[in-house]
Automatic annotation (TrEMBL):
UniProt GO molecular function: 3-dehydroquinate dehydratase activity
Lineage of source species: unclassified sequences, metagenomes, ecological metagenomes
Stated name of the protein: 3-dehydroquinate dehydratase
InterPro entries: Aldolase_TIM, DHquinase_I
A Pfam family this chain is assigned to: DHquinase_I
Length: 68
């Protein structure tokens, strides 16, 4: 996990206009806050086995909004 966040921060140092942060990232909100001080942040959710139900999608969007 720390390695993934380090890579995102390195991408920002190299001039990334936006970075993609997985919604299931540990310490999501502080990570998003740190990134948003320096560049744009996109929150994503990947579930490759099936499409989430509408109820699950609403929960995903709610968590994205809460994270910033």
């Amino acid at each position: 996990e720390a390695s993934r966040i380090e890579k995102l921060l390195k991408a920002i140092e190299l001039g990334a206009d936006i970075v993609d942060v997985e919604l299931r990232t540990t310490n999501l909100k502080p990570t998003v806050e740190l990134i948003k001080k320096r560049t744009k942040c996109m929150l994503s959710y990947h579930h490759l086995d099936k499409t989430p139900s509408l109820h699950d999608m609403k929960g995903i969007v709610r968590r994205q909004l809460e994270a910033g």
